[in-house]
TrEMBL record:
PANTHER family: MITOCHONDRIAL BASIC AMINO ACIDS TRANSPORTER-RELATED. Keywords: Membrane, Mitochondrion, Repeat, Transmembrane, Transmembrane helix, Transport. This is Mitochondrial carrier protein. InterPro entries: MCP_dom_sf, MCP_transmembrane, Mitochondrial_Carrier. Belongs to the mitochondrial carrier (TC 2.A.29) family. Pfam families: Mito_carr. One of its GO terms (cellular component) is mitochondrial membrane. It comes from the Eukaryota. Solcar repeats lie at residues 36-123. One of its GO terms (molecular function) is transmembrane transporter activity.
Amino acid sequence: MKGYCSALCRDSIAYGVYFGTYSTLKSKIIGDQPNPSILKILLCGALTGEVFWITVYPIDLCKTKIQSDPFRGGKFTGLIPTAKEIYRLEGFKGFYRGYITCVCRTPFSSGFTFVTVETVMKLIGPLGATLE
């Protein structure tokens, strides 16, 4: 279960940011439109993904280093010691190693995730209403 606490810390922050950001952007960009365009949903999802990774990327990087370190004798033992080691070796920029790749793929993955979610919710909406 190496890295479990780091993953829990990341996810506790990340998904509050993720869904909170999407909800806020959706209300600002889409509002009460009953049939918003796919482009608006994509935009909300893409921006949500960017905010998500800006917020949690350093924690995710630490978590990944902990999880990929050898099980015995590894140098990354916890979130705080790992963060200190990254900063000692690479400075602040070390927390954003690989960030550009992540930021380039995120608009697509998050955008299409929310298009899928909104489409499924629209399809099951009538079904959910009949079950009440």
